[in-house]
Structures are given as structure tokens and as C-alpha cells.
Amino acid sequence: MIPRDHRSRPIGRRDFLQLAAAGLAASxxxxxxxxxxxxxxxxxxxxxxxxTKVEAKERTPGPSLAPxxxxxxxVVGLGHLALGQVLPAFGNSKYARPVALVxxxxxxxxxxxxxxxxxxxxxxxxxxxxxxxxxxxxxxVYVILPNSMHAEYTIRAARIGKHVLCEKPMAVSVGEAERMxxxxxxxxxxxMLGYRSQYEPMDRAIVRMVGExxxxxxxxxxxxxxxxxxxxxxxxxxxxMAGGGPLVDVGIYCINAARFLTGEEPTDxxxxxxxxxxxxxxREVESAVEFLLRFPSGFSAACNASYDCxxxxxxxxxxxxxxxxxxPAFAYHGLSLRLGRPVDGVDxxxxxxxxxxxxxxxxxxxxxxxxxxxxxxxxxGAEGLQDMKxxxxxxxxxxxxxxxxxxxxxxxxxxxxxxxx
Length: 421
Ligand code: NDP
Known about the structure:
Elements: E1 7-8, H1 13-24, E2 29-30, H2 52-59, E3 71-76, H3 80-89, E4 96-102, H4 106-116, E5 123-124, E6 140-143, H5 150-159, E7 163-166, H6 174-187, E8 191-193, H7 201-211, E9 218-228, H8 239-242, H9 246-262, E10 268-274, E11 288-294, E12 300-306, E13 308-319, E14 322-326, E15 337-343, E16 346-353, H10 359-373, H11 381-400, E17 404-405
Parallel strand pairs: 1-16, 3-4, 3-6, 4-5, 6-7, 7-8, 9-12
Antiparallel strand pairs: 2-16, 9-13, 10-11, 10-17, 11-12, 13-14, 14-15, 15-16
Bound molecules: NADPH dihydro-nicotinamide-adenine-dinucleotide phosphate.
NADPH dihydro-nicotinamide-adenine-dinucleotide phosphate is lined by residues 77-82, 103-105, 144-147, 167-168, 194, 196, 235, 249.
């Protein structure tokens, strides 16, 4: 329920024109949140969410490349994410195409290959992985394996000269993440982490608003990413394969969002974990984690993640002049963005629907354009490594009960994604 001292309202005509100018016209659908008996103000000063020039480019999709010109990807590991999200996303991409599969189950791979027009010769398994060196169509290897296998397959891909897109979390330890960066650097191949939220239009709108000071100074970030993990036999509950519990799997979204939305890096973390000793799912990993990150400007992030909770995926970024909230924030579909700001001296809540885009297609296209134009990925190895360091410090704090300091990293992100490629 919206507090009574906040007047919620639909986006006014002027808002809508501003959003239209900002490239959100077809997609920015005003949603009435209900008003509290007050007249619609004549003048509404919603600042443009986006830079007109950049968004106009995004609104008009660039030419899709012909299949023969697209960047070829080998998809490694045909599990839930690969089959349910990544492979279908190639259909929405402009610059990428699947050209090879790596799987431990050939019969499954044959079916998938037929579905995506991939030849039988381009199906590999984990022991024939290096044979991909002889397939020039494969430019990028997309590692979608259990977390403990990310480092091995990233390094093996780099050694055969293939660029790597790797799922989050980057690895199961800081040391592994460092070795992945080293291997890709030595082989002169690109390494990108699959932080899809950083390519998602609503998140990008918030980044831009914060960067332009439209919400004032970031002060607090509150976020949860929780779900109910049922099957006690799955690898996500095995410490060696997962590297941790909900913190590494879903809590990482909260960590990463606090960092990329503000552009700040935390100076320390204090945390606690829960274990649920009688629940067979949580013999090896925590059932939940709560943590507080502090940042140099005084900004702080209070986050939690759980494997024993009804799905909850939100954040609210509270700033001196307003707030931005996404709920859900980290889902594949159905994201929602609300802004709370004073308008003509009246606290106002505005819901803005930005055109939904396939986050995985955006991610694939970013990696493809980095390959085609020889650019650094926006979410490269350093971005993944920094999250790994924060995760390690969070577990250390939960173990010791102490606040754990974090060193300031060198800049972790490559150039802003240009969705034209
Ligand atoms: P799944 O368990 O569904 O799939 C993993 C696949 O890896 C398996 O299907 C299998 O494919 C292959 N594999 C190889 N060796 C093993 C092994 N020993 N045990 C289990 N699987 C093995 O996992 P997800 O698809 O859910 O997750 C994969 C990765 O993607 C994880 O790192 C996860 O964190 C990340 N992820 C990212 C999301 C995002 O939104 N960015 C969302 C969900 C997951 P095959 O049978 O073909 O060999």
C-alpha cells in the first residue's frame, strides 16, 4: 500500500512526451497507481530518463547481421539456463548465432542441435572440448556449467584461442577468478561475465539517472534475492560445486546492483548467515545470508538472500531527492520500475514500464559487438573478480562476526554498452 502522504499518479501528458523524447515512447506505458483525491498537476517535471541521442539509437534497432556475418557461439552445458533462456535468446539477437554445443549427453545435444540448425559435427563433449580449435565458426565459448567448472572451461577455451562469455558467479574462489583473467589475458581473448542486469533497459535508466544526479545523492540500497530451492540433491547445495549457497547464486545480484547502479565500490562488509541444521538441504551451504556493505560516500547496501523463502527479488535505491525501485528486479521477465520523487512539492510515485527486452539477447549482442569491434566488454573479468572478493569477505565476516575491510579496486567495468554494437 502506498503511504497516504505520498500521492501516486499516472504519468502525465508532459511526462509521456518527455519519455517519448527519451526513446521510451512506444514502450513507456503510463500505469495509474491511483491518486488521493487531488487534481492532476498541469506541470509535471519528470526528467528524461535517458539521453535522447543514445536512446533514439536503441529504439531503432540496428541492422541485424546476416547469419554468415554473425558471431558464432559454442554453448557449453545444456542445463536449465542454456535451454530455457540462452538458446532461445539467439532468436532475439542481432549479431550472435549458436554454432556449436558442448554437452555430456549426446542424445540431448543432438535434439537441441537439430532444433537450432547446428550440424552434428559441431557437437562436442567435455573430453573433446579442445577439438573446437579446428572449428573457425566458433568465436565465443559461453560457459553455462555449475560454478566449480567455470574456471576450468574458461581457461581451456582461452587456451584454444576462443573468447569467453562466462555465467555468474565467475568461479568458486578469488584465486580461480584471478587465474581466469590471467589465462584470457595471456591468450589475448576477451572475457565477459554474464551480468545480464547491466544490459537491461530499466537498470540502465537508473544508472543514467544516478549519474546525472536526477535522484540526488545515493544514500541507501535495500535488496533481497530469495527463492525456495527444493531438491536436496542438486549441485547448488553442494559446497564444492557451488562455492557457497544463496549468497553466491542469487545474493550476487544484490551486490552487483549496489555497485553498478551507483558506480561505487564497498569499503567493508558485515554479515551473518543461517544454516537450518535439521534441513537436509543445508548440510553444506547457508540457507540465508544478510549483509551490510558500506561505501566511501556514506552510501550503504543492506541485502539478504535465501534458499528457504518464497521468491522475492527487489531493490530500492534511496537517494537524497528521490528513489528508484525495481520489483521484481532480477527476474527474466516482468520487471517493474517505480520512481518516488517530489513533483511540484508533492511526493509522487510514478510507475514506468520501459519496453521489455530479452536481457540474454542484449548480453549476447554486447559480447558479439565487442568481438566484431575489438572492444573491452562492459562486464569483463575484473567485474566478476570484484564480486568474488566481496563474497569472500562476506563469508569471512559471517564466520568471524567482525566487519571485514575491502580494498578499492581499479575500475572494474569496460565502456558503457552501446546496444547498436
Ligand atoms: P543446470 O544444473 O540446470 O545445468 C548445468 C549443466 O551443466 C547440466 O545440464 C550439464 O549439461 C552440465 N554439467 C556438466 N557437468 C555437470 C555436473 N557434474 N553436474 C551438473 N551439471 C553438469 O544449471 P543452470 O543452468 O541452472 O546453471 C548453470 C550456470 O548458470 C550456473 O553457473 C548458474 O549460476 C548460472 N545461472 C545464471 C543465471 C542468470 O540469470 N544469469 C540464471 C541461472 C543460472 P550437459 O548435460 O549438457 O552436460
